[in-house]
Amino acid sequence: MTVRTTGNAATTGCYQELQTIFTLTPPAGTDLRSFDLGYNAIVDRVATHVVIVTVGSDIAGESAGASTIGTISRDTVTNTVQPLHVDLGSGGRYHGFLSMITLGMQHIREGTDHQLFLLTLLLPAPLLARNRRWTGAVGARRALRRITSITVSFTLGHSVTLALGAVGVPVPQQLVEALIAVSILVAAAHAMRPLFPGREALIAAAFGLVHGLAFSEALRELHLSGAQLMLSLLGFNLGIEAMQLIIVVLVLPPLILLARANRYRTLRLVAAAATAVAAAGWLAARIGLPNTVANLADRIEILAIPVVLGLWLVALAITIRDRRQQASSTPSPVGLDQPNSDHHWSLLVNRLTGLPLAEIE
């Protein structure tokens, strides 16, 4: 067990790293290429810690270079750390690729700040911007095009810097984390009042470059190269995109329903304000000012499922109620022999033309 100084003074800063080299002796009769690796150092104490297991070299296998074979983390539901099954005989690269996809999905699922940036930027997507205010809802197709362009732009932005960071481009970690909090503040302000209407995709791409640098930290310490680095990078990125798509599919439909039902303003303002408060807490903490708001914001992940279920229930309930009200208020066919038929005709013309009733009558 040794301690060494590592890091970069200009980017991550210099810090002390504990390095331990140890030998594991398997029980007699164990298959040396297929076994369970039990490991719980740090993981049993820090819920967000993830151990990435790699093979430095496998002379007996197909690859003589480093390869990723899986991850070990704590299950936050059962609060247990399960061993990793290592099976070198069935192809380490395939299992490593799937593990990197899982790691990418986990990175977004636990990365509340990344989720909040994307979702907050999407909050006004179903709305029109007029006179520096968010007004009525746009059509479903237009809203879908906006949502798609914002999500794809964010993906392209962070994919570029994720790759650059993974291959060794210096990353000023503290600055990056602070800029992520700034990006959430900007998105929250835009959700309250239009700051860059119509240019959300451009903003998503620009801030995506910052978020990608943060994503790359999960891969930087693996010291992979060549085909294995490319494979791990692809798997990790696919995991990120898959989790983002799941989040968008779950959250955006009820938001569009609420926007079309004119019940969106309060929800949008409350969500944007709460996000801004969380982002301000994160920003303060990331520039060296620890605070309770940041600590609470780090734990809001547990509210994700109840919030999504609540959105769907409210959106469906309001939509069903509004349709029933519309059906009950639809006028019956007007006949000339009905009482007050002139007034009925006036109402009908008013609905079709928008002219004032007084002028029609």
Automatic annotation (TrEMBL):
<feature type="transmembrane region" description="Helical">
    <location>
        <begin position="231"/>
        <end position="257"/>
    </location>
</feature>
<feature type="transmembrane region" description="Helical">
    <location>
        <begin position="201"/>
        <end position="219"/>
    </location>
</feature>
<protein>
    <submittedName>
        <fullName>HupE/UreJ family protein</fullName>
    </submittedName>
</protein>
<feature type="transmembrane region" description="Helical">
    <location>
        <begin position="175"/>
        <end position="192"/>
    </location>
</feature>
<keyword id="KW-0812">Transmembrane</keyword>
<feature type="transmembrane region" description="Helical">
    <location>
        <begin position="300"/>
        <end position="320"/>
    </location>
</feature>
<dbReference type="Pfam" id="PF13795">
    <property type="entry name" value="HupE_UreJ_2"/>
</dbReference>
<keyword id="KW-0472">Membrane</keyword>
<keyword id="KW-1133">Transmembrane helix</keyword>
<dbReference type="InterPro" id="IPR032809">
    <property type="entry name" value="Put_HupE_UreJ"/>
</dbReference>
<feature type="transmembrane region" description="Helical">
    <location>
        <begin position="150"/>
        <end position="169"/>
    </location>
</feature>
<feature type="transmembrane region" description="Helical">
    <location>
        <begin position="269"/>
        <end position="288"/>
    </location>
</feature>
